[in-house]
């Protein structure tokens, strides 16, 4: 019952986020959100979520979001190409996964 409620709450939050994004853009194209999935995964993993199962704290998720936001803002202030920003986010994800896998082995 708790697991089902969690999925319902997650779906509700995703629907509200989609409505807010559509209102901001005044239109919606599915291709607009392509980088958001990668960004969400990067934030979760960098915040301490174990890809092999386990629990995460709210503080870790917030810290991961802040670090990735600072990274994005810094890169955009230095006029880095948006495609390169996506590559950097992917590199951060690979680094976080590699570190998590090494920690799991030890």
Helix fraction bin: over 70%
Helix count, DSSP H or I runs of 4 or more residues? 4
Describe the largest sheet: none
Shape, principal axes of CA atoms? flat
Radius of gyration: 16 Å
The parts where pLDDT drops under 50 for at least 5 residues are: none
Order of helices and strands: HHHH
How many individual β-strands? 0
Mean pLDDT: 81
Main structural class: mainly alpha
- What separation lies between the terminal Cα atoms? 35 Å
Write out key terms for the chains shown.
mainly alpha, single chain, flat, 106 residues
What does this 3D model show about the protein?
The chain is built from 4 helices and no strands. The protein has helices at 2-25, 34-46, 58-77, 82-105.
Brief description of this entry?
The mean pLDDT is 81.
SSE layout:
Layout: H1 2-25, H2 34-46, H3 58-77, H4 82-105
